[in-house]
Amino acid sequence: MNTILVTGGAGFIGSNFIRYALIKDKDVRIVNLDALTYAGNLISLGKLPDPKRHTFIQGGVENSELLEKILREHEVTRIVHFAAETHVDRSIIDPELFIRTNVIGTYRLLMAALKYWEERKILDDSIVRFHHISTDEVFGALGKNDPPFDENTPYQPNSPYSASKAASDHFVRSFSRTYGLPVTITNCSNNYGPFQYPEKLIPLVILNALEEKPIPIYGKGAQIRDWLYVSDHCDAIWKALFNGTSGETYCIGGDTQIENIELVKMICRILDEKKPLHSGSYEQYIHFVTDRPGHDFRYAINCTKIKQKLDWKPKTLLHDGLCATIRWYLDNIEWVKAVRKKPSYQEWITKNYLKRG
Question: What is the pTM of this model?
Answer without folding.
Answer: 0.94
